[in-house]
Design goal:
Blueprint lengths: L5 H23 L16 H9 L73 E23 L4 E5 H4 E2 L1 E12 L3 E11 L1 E2 L17 E16 L5 E18 L4 E19 L4 E13 L2 E6 L3 E4 L7 E18 L2
Antiparallel strand pairs: 1-2, 1-4, 1-13, 3-6, 4-5, 5-7, 7-8, 8-9, 9-10, 9-11, 10-13, 11-12
Length: 332
Amino acid sequence: MPSLKVPTIAGTLAWGGVLLGFCGSLVFAPRPSHAEPQASPGGSAAASAAASAKGPLPPLPAGSAAPAGSAAAPGAAPPPYMYQDQWNPPQDAPRPIQGGPLPAPRPGAYVYEPPPPAPPVHRAPWSSLFLGARVGALFPFGNAYATDSNVYYEYGEEWDGFATGGPAVEADVGARFARSFVLYAFWEHAWMGKGSDPSWRAPPPGSNFGEQTSATTDYPGLGFRWSSRPSNVGVLIDVGLGYRWFRERWASGAKMDFSGFGEFRIGIGADVRLSRLMSISPLLNLTSGSFSERQVTIPGQGRRDIQGTFSSSHGTLTLSIGGNFDLIGADD
């Protein structure tokens, strides 16, 4: 069996060492950097020539360059894109006690303030004892009685020929119910002026009556009214039915008395609530009726009915304002 030669083994080990060295040089050799080497003041001319041969570097990104006049960081200068300026706090930030004035005080805690109360509502009672008084003026129109008529016209003595308009007052008492309705009794009295027909005041022998001394009218009855808004300001509708008297006196002692039942009135106005217990009501009333009873008293002749006549329609127009009171009221 042939024996191994020592040189052969030694040669193999030598070539193996060469191969391991070559592989190590490949693995552990330093890799080239992408950044260009910075030229130092003492660099060689060859390094400068190599840098110029590769061309200029690309421009730095915006904002990465150091601001003018800023001091360089100690030590070796870092790359331009690694520069960082000194941080300064915002101007409006609160400063600490050691540096400058104190910050503005914070606003206090929110405090709830309730809204102002609503204006009071004077609510009318649901039911109550109703009392009222009115003052105004009454104006008569139409005929006091008729002496003749035809299909188209009626002839007679006009009421304002006996007496003209004058001041009027009225008293009301009743009950309010369901807040908007009032059922009441009324009495109206008016003082009338001198008549527009002077023949009734002619001295004798033209007339036996002489100068007019007084003329009044009374109108009692039952009324019903409705208010659209009894607790605020509303429309007022008033209706009534009653009995009317008319009395006139002359200086000679002559008298004239007219009367009749069934005079109807209707009115429209406003109902203004001032408080829970009080309201005012301006009102326009219109009445229509007739005098079925007509009597005259002449001195020396006594009292007698006016013959040869028949009843005729007449009316009144009344403008008034009244105050109303709700007593002993009860709510729903």
